[in-house]
Amino acid sequence: MIETKTPALAITDLAKTYHNGKEALKGINLTVEQGDFFALLGPNGAGKSTTISIITGLLDATRGHIEIFGHDHISDMRNAKSMVGLVPQDFNFNQFELCEEILINQAGYFGVPRKIAKERAKKYLDLLHLTDKARVMARNLSGGMKRRLLIARALMHEPNLLILDEPTAGVDIEIRRQTWDLLQKINATGTTIILTTHYLEEAELLCKNIAIINHGEIVQHCSMDALLRQLQSESFVLSLSEPLSTIPNSIEGLTFTAINPMTLEVEIQKPHSVTSVFDILKDHSINVDTLRNKANRLEELFIKLTSNKEVE
């Protein structure tokens, strides 16, 4: 008999209506398996933050049931909350406290003895490349360092489930890529990660499975690969070696548009591929220097799913 693992997170019929009558969640169902790197995406106001707040015990649900590694988030709240580490969007630590003390105090909230907390603080400051900032006040850190401090703080009680709410918002490309590498290493150790982000290339790169929420409802819940296979067309921008003399005629499934004499855009519909494009360009003696997607693949699907359009 194949042993079935308890899901890291199991949400059943979760609903939330605020006092002003706004229905933020409309009975969503969601499962995240142990060890997953999971994307929870949606436009602003879709219900992501409400869902995270309920999971982490910051907000009460109107109805529904949540289990975190088999622990009921109401009747077994202590154990359920101990399983979760949250990296919020905002810098919600004491800006005048030393970085090391922020981490040690956080561990104390979960009953970690101070001696062990000090050891862990050093461990996670090293992991997050903040070792030389241990005795520095948080207010003196750069924005990227503060983001990393939030991650270190969330790891201090060594949770099984790490939830990151926009962890790379407002940081530069170098810090973003360092954060991606770090999160992949954390996930490789067995920690389940749920990521919310507006950088859709980030979700496509990192995540194995995905749920998209819109107007309080889950509109997609599948593997990242399965979702991307739904995309029936892609648009590419081609930079040319020489100015265009003629534009190839569009045919069924392939549409060519000149952006300027040195740039050609092509929309490719299945079953055509990039190979089909290059065959036509070769016939027209058009040489290509570079090729790039006009938009991230996940971005195209996301827009269609959240604007109530059919996926084409």
Structural descriptors:
alpha/beta; four-stranded antiparallel beta sheet; 10 helices
List the helices and strands and how they pair.
Blueprint: E1 9-17, E2 23-32, E3 37-41, H1 48-55, E4 63-68, E5 71-72, H2 77-82, E6 84-87, H3 99-109, H4 114-127, H5 143-155, E7 161-165, H6 173-188, E8 192-196, H7 200-206, E9 209-214, E10 217-223, H8 224-228, E11 233-240, E12 254-260, E13 263-269, H9 274-283, E14 288-293, H10 297-306
Parallel strand pairs: 3-8, 3-9, 6-7, 7-8
Antiparallel strand pairs: 1-2, 1-4, 4-5, 9-10, 11-13, 11-14, 12-13
Helix pairs in contact: 3-4, 3-5, 4-5
Q: State the secondary-structure class.
A: alpha/beta
Give a short account of the largest sheet.
6 strands, mixed
Q: Mean pLDDT score, rounded?
A: 90
What is the chains' assembly state?
Answer: single chain
Uncertain residue ranges: none
> N-to-C SSE series?
EEEHEEHEHHHEHEHEEHEEEHEH
Radius of gyration using CA atoms only: 23 Å
What overall form do the CA principal axes indicate?
globular
Strand content: 25-35%
Distance between the termini: 41 Å
Strands across the major sheet, in which order?
6-7-8-3-9-10
Instruction: Count all strands and give the number.
Output: 14
Number of distinct helices: 10
Helix coverage percent: 25-40%
